[in-house]
Fold each of these.
Amino acid sequence: MKIPMLDLNAQYEPIMDDIKAAIDKVLASHHYIMGPQVKEFEDKVASSLGIAHAIGCASGTDALVLSVKALGIGNNDEVITTPFSFFATASSIWRNNARPRFVDIDPRTFNLNPELIEAAITPRTKAIMPVHLFGQCSDMTAIMEIARKHGLAVIEDNAQGVGCTWEGKMSCSFGDVGTLSFFPSKNLGAMGDAGMCLTNDDKLAATLRQLRVHGEKPKYFHECVGFNSRLDTMQAAILNIKYDHLEKWSEGRRANAAYYNQHLADIKQIKTPWIDPRAVSIYNQYTLVCEDRDGLKDHLTDKGIACAVYYPLPLHLQQCFKELGYQKADLPISEEMAAKVLSIPIYPELTSTQKEYIVESIQQYYQ
Ligand SMILES: *Cc1c(COP(=O)(O)O)cnc(C)c1O
């Protein structure tokens, strides 16, 4: 048996006719940049998430870069964030000439540990950027309390968490701005790169809209130097179709997680994901903490089961951030998790046979 991390064939098969029709409509109109499908998608996401403004852009990375810029952060300002995330979380800060200040994570959720944030605040700190890693919302109650107390902005990197909630409230609705990625492997994936900023702040929304079109207002008059970072019409048309299936897909992922939780519970060498009772996860990943992780990884690979390490090297130890001065053992939980985590297939189209095979293969390794 061969099981991929994500089966895009299975995902697209039932909706491909609808997608082709939507693409054909864009082709017939030749309205490739900022066509009506872009606003349609923005409105759809904003209203369904209950957030005032959705601003489409070229990628999840750009959504973060635009957000940092729109908040006026740069010039050696500091942004507190997690070292246990995809690279773009930190690079978006760096590319605005600001400095990421890494704070260690809670080993149970892999998310920023709010108890460690206040000690990292300096006079240069301008914002906190939590990541809702693997589809589970960070502790936004604690993070917003700290942000308010110290007058800091909050940018939610929700690239992996579209639709996840905290205490019944939607991710991206806590901070000043939240971002989404529609990279093809995210829960809501485009057929290429695409991203989005979400905010309830009218002024910030206007700035983000301006920044994505070179900072122009009106056309050909530039108040500031912005970017070329629009959401492609074709991608918006595709996402419009796929968005209507998202909730059902997230339910499928949660059902698969429940199956794994039950059937992997007795293996004492692994820990299944812990979801805070205040959070509803969308399981962008199902991530185990394992003894002898690399051995298990090789075993599953031999069995034809794809699995992946997200992420093998925490951001504070990346070579490109050397000048920040972090050393090994500075953020021990992130470093420990980088050595122990393994994500296994969780996509909603997994069949019962596939799930059984994955569970049996993990059991077999530790027996
Ligand atoms: C995927 C991802 C991004 C970047 O999104 P792209 O659309 O690939 O640019 C940023 N942050 C996190 C946590 C991600 O997982």
Note: The first helix runs from residue 8 to 12.
Amino acid sequence: MAIQQKLSLMIPGPTPVPERVLQALSRHPIGHRSKEFQDLVESTSKNLQWLHQTQNDVLTITGSGTAAMEAGIINTLSKGDKVICGENGKFGERWVKVAKEFGLEVIKIDSPWGTPLDPEAFKKVLDEDKQKEIKAVILTHSETSTGVINDLETISSYIREHSTALSIVDCVTSLGACNVPIDEWELDIVASGSQKGYMIPPGLSFISMSQKAWEAAEKSNLPKFYLNLKSYKKSLLSNSNPYTPAVNLIFALDESLKMMREEGLHNIFFRHNKHKLAMCNAVKALNLKLFADENYLSPSITAIKTEGMDAEEFRKKIKNNFDILLAGGQDHLKGKIFRVGHLGYVNDRDIITVVSSISKTLLDLGRITSQEAGEALVVVSKYLEKN
Ligand SMILES: *Cc1c(COP(=O)(O)O)cnc(C)c1O
């Protein structure tokens, strides 16, 4: 029987929240115009720049990840602007919808769900744009719906060759999980959200804006008020916010960024990579198949095919028997895949436990032998040993 309080979240957001962060959240709110709060804004914005590996402004918005992506689009573009949207999953699809909603002319570069976007397809369209009509390239780094990571480094190098187009990137499940060196790759706009790698509850989103992005903001004519980033930039100069921010989430952010600094970027990326490898090799040992192209696996989420088995039923068994919440497939993938989130506050024990729970369930269903179940654990331990 499930014990609700001990539910373990292994979905790609919201992700588990450390006790230190929960305690920070439980404080009484303070005035958002107080000196104490300004000090917090000062320290969180410095630590956000550290996490983003950038000297650019990193702004905090009270709103989910979608708010930051929408802000990136509406602050730098104008009605009728031509943009490229990369689409190889649910989130890529969302950014196409947002762009169209704001009257942008979308050139879609897509790839079947489960496969990565082809950087050469971006290069071709950008190279052909001699009139420099393309104003931005909008894409998703880690496509959470399919467990695919796109080759952002190469695509962004092609965007730089074009020279005038901006990059607007959804890094919601890559930032704080794998290397996204914003300054080195010269990414213009990078969006992320609190309930993912940040280890805090939903409610905040973050947006990094390059100098080039701010220059584009001077010309943008799309309507905006709450999400007008110029107000956020201006108030950040005095360590403040244009509107009332989610004060307690800022307490949580301050604590989680401290935890990240204690662990160090290298160790954080190493841990996510190790868990990704442990998961994908366990999947193979359990005679299951990965949904995503094995050379492009997201550090944060593993999508698993359940051929001949209803993935929703499988997920329910894991939840009822082991108190572990896994994610299902979205849209046409519902019932066909399930997804294991290993993003944020996740340790080796979580990985061993989730693999054991999956093995035990497959064993009960007669899909694997006890020897195979045992071997999967040997495989997992081998990857987890690497430190
Ligand atoms: C979670 C997520 C988002 C943000 O979704 P919100 O519900 O608005 O926070 C955006 N992109 C990706 C890839 C995500 O995983």
Note: The chain has two domains: 8-14+264-384, 19-262.
